[in-house]
Amino acid sequence: MKVRRSDRLIDMTRYLLERPHRLVSLTFFSERYGSAKSSISEDLTILKRTLKFRGTGLLETVPGAAGGARFIPYIPEKEATEFVDGVIESLSEADRFLPGGYVYMSDLLGRPNVLRQVGRLIATQYLADQVDTVLTVATKGIPIAQSISDYLNVPFVIARHDSQITEGSTVSVNYVSGSSSRIEKMALSKRSLAPDSRVLIVDDFMKGGGTVGGMQSLVKEFDAKVAGVAVFAEGSFAGERRVPDYTSLLKIHATNDHVEVTPGNFAEQIYTPERLAQFVD
């Protein structure tokens, strides 16, 4: 049965938004709606213009017999900055201070709207980079990693400090905690990462970088490659971090019951309209 254009546009938008970074053929849409490919192409042109104008994402069209359309979500620079500024305001409360220079963030990282924006923002940093898997450790970084993997449309895996029988055979490494200099252990199922895969490492909070360094060691044990490192917040650290290159959304300096929160280095890497124009016309 042939579907009206208005109905097609709504359903096509939903279908593409739910499958980011996946190429959907014109043939599929043509058969789904009982419409000619020329009509589907016109619909995709409308979606492409609207999604880009509204800052929702990019619709990449691939010509040819095997071509189709691929939705690539991103967040505009202005919206990203406004979101981070809002998080900074929420975290800049004196009662959030925790001993050891930490800040209470669990309530924010439990809000779906915050997690969606965090995932969207970090995924934007890797628009032009291949990411096959998102890796995090069994802490509050799990929902962040899940949100990022959703926008990148790739699996996410969890390294654990104690291996579980449900994980099957595991690979483990010992690493030095950057903030306390204690020896810790981290394990990951052998089935988690494929050789030569590109892995994005994610964590909720980083001080000395010991935990992230442990995950980097795990990636090497699998003969995989680190595509990047992203953290929700980085804390002040007097020594030298074990991880020199990373993306952070926030910088947190907490001393003497005082919390100071500033933007992280994400603004140096966010895709501006000029960079987006170079990525997809």
UniProtKB/TrEMBL annotation:
Sequence ranges assigned to domain Phosphoribosyltransferase in this UniProt record: 108-257
Keyword Nucleotide-binding among record annotations: no
Keyword list, A-Z: DNA-binding, Transcription, Transcription regulation
Signal peptide: none
Keyword Nucleotide-binding in annotation: no
Listed NCBIfam families: purR_Bsub
Subunit (UniProt): Homodimer.
Name recorded for this polypeptide: Pur operon repressor
Species annotation: Secundilactobacillus hailunensis
High-level lineage: Bacteria, Bacillati, Bacillota, Bacilli, Lactobacillales
Encoding gene (name): purR
